Amino acid sequence: MAQNFPNGLTLFHRRIYKLVEDPATDPLISWGKDNNSFVIWNLEEFIRRDIVDKFDCGKFSEFRSELRHYGFRRIKKGSGELEFGHEDFVRGHPERLKAMMLKAFRKNRARFLAQEAQEEMQRLQI
């Protein structure tokens, strides 16, 4: 199924959406029941198949860090299952990925500017 991704979208956003959307990967990773999350059904198999390498991550912890960077939150599931959700990661609406990306950019930029300001204040007090 072809998606209409918005221009300027990062590879991470395209790849995660395509992976979750692909019916061939459903036994491993698929949409959550509310269609705004995805479930990794078998973490060991996910790692064994080197899925994280497709996201330029060497380890699952780096992949999870990327998810957090873009605002995904962990949703509690049963043993052996991991679910991550985001209000703008919605089945059938790849155009919302742009909003997701921009929110992460603004949040991280604000954090960077606050840190820069704090360092400048410390420097001036010396």
UniProtKB/TrEMBL annotation:
InterPro entries: HSF_DNA-bd, WH-like_DNA-bd_sf, WH_DNA-bd_sf. This is Heat stress transcription factor A-1-like. It comes from Camelina sativa. Pfam families: HSF_DNA-bind (PF00447). It is found in: Nucleus. Keywords: DNA-binding, Nucleus, Stress response. SUPFAM superfamilies: Winged helix' DNA-binding domain. Belongs to the HSF family. Residues 8-103 form the HSF-type DNA-binding domain.
